[in-house]
Amino acid sequence: MTTQPSFRTCTRTKHHRQIVNKKISPKILQVESLHIYPIMSTLFIMIKKKINNLEWLEFELLQDFAKIKHFVSLSTPPQQVILANQVHGNHVERIQKPPKNELVCDALSTNTKNLAIGVKHADCQAGILYDPLHHAAACVHCGWRGSVQNIFCKSIEHMRKHFHSSPSDLLFCVGPSLGPENAEFINYKSELPKKFWDYQIKPNYFDFWEITKSEALACGIDPNHIEIAKLDTYSGPFYSYRQDRSQKNRHITAITLL
Questions:
Q1: What's the pLDDT tens digit per position in 190-243?
Q2: How far apart are CA 6 and CA 46, in angstroms?
Q3: Residue ranges of the domains in the chain?
Q4: Sign of the C-alpha dihedral, residues 65, 68, 72, 78?
Q5: Which CATH class is domain 66-257?
Q6: Spatial distance between the Cα atoms of 148 and 162, rounded to a whole number of angstroms
Q7: pLDDT digits over 94-110, tens only?
Q8: Which DSSP string do the residues of the chain spell out, in sequence order?
């Protein structure tokens, strides 16, 4: 019989800010809590880690699972990652071994151990889906076009089909991305479906963090299994395409099953 995993609940107040310096391993120099925010009734922290010149973020929601490694890179990734040519679509590709040819898709999934799968992003959302019962995962790239095509729900359905994942068992994490104060869509009436229009925080500005959360909930994700980092790439110390228009600078969000 499969044992249901336990999930940690953080009880810190939403106004709490904390910097923790402690020794995680012989090479870890710093562990720093970047941001605390409420998700339904639960609070989570994105954790910043550093080894020498390597810096990355991790999700608190995934900290208790020893059989995975994950990161949101803030510098050159510490390992080789399987990536795809992302085309702002909704295709999900299952990876069972390192590919010989270029992958063209915006989401990768696997249940194979020791394969790092990931997505590139700068303003777009990058999500991790992890099934601790069937030990399977997916990495998803989602810009506004991906939101319109509902790629997160497409990825959830993909995991149900290929790995027998139940949406209510999945953990869903989204890292830093374009925030509502900077997500301007002057042509939203032709670009975004009407169901998105209710998420305007002011004329022409949209809260895609809330759009993603509502889509995840509609697809059956448990509200206590959602961590969306409300860290704005445009105004924060992150790569932002809207800010610098660079085609080169990208973060990588990745996960490896151990």
A1: 999 999 999 999 999 999 999 999 999 999 999 999 999 999 999 878 999 898
A2: 19
A3: 66-257
A4: positive
A5: alpha beta
A6: 24
A7: 999 999 999 999 999 99
A8: -PPPPP---B---TT---EE---SSTT--EEEEEEEEEETTEEEEEEEEEETTEEEEEEGGGTT-TTEEEEEESSS-SS--B--B--SS--EEE-SS--SS--B-SEEEE--TT-EEEEEESSSEEEEEEETTTTEEEEEEE-HHHHHTTHHHHHHHHHHHHH---GGG-EEEE-SB--TTT-B-TTHHHHS-HHHHTTEEETTEE-HHHHHHHHHHHTT--GGGEEE---BTTTTTS--HHHH--SS--EEEEEEE-
What would the two tokens of residue 195 be? 């169901």
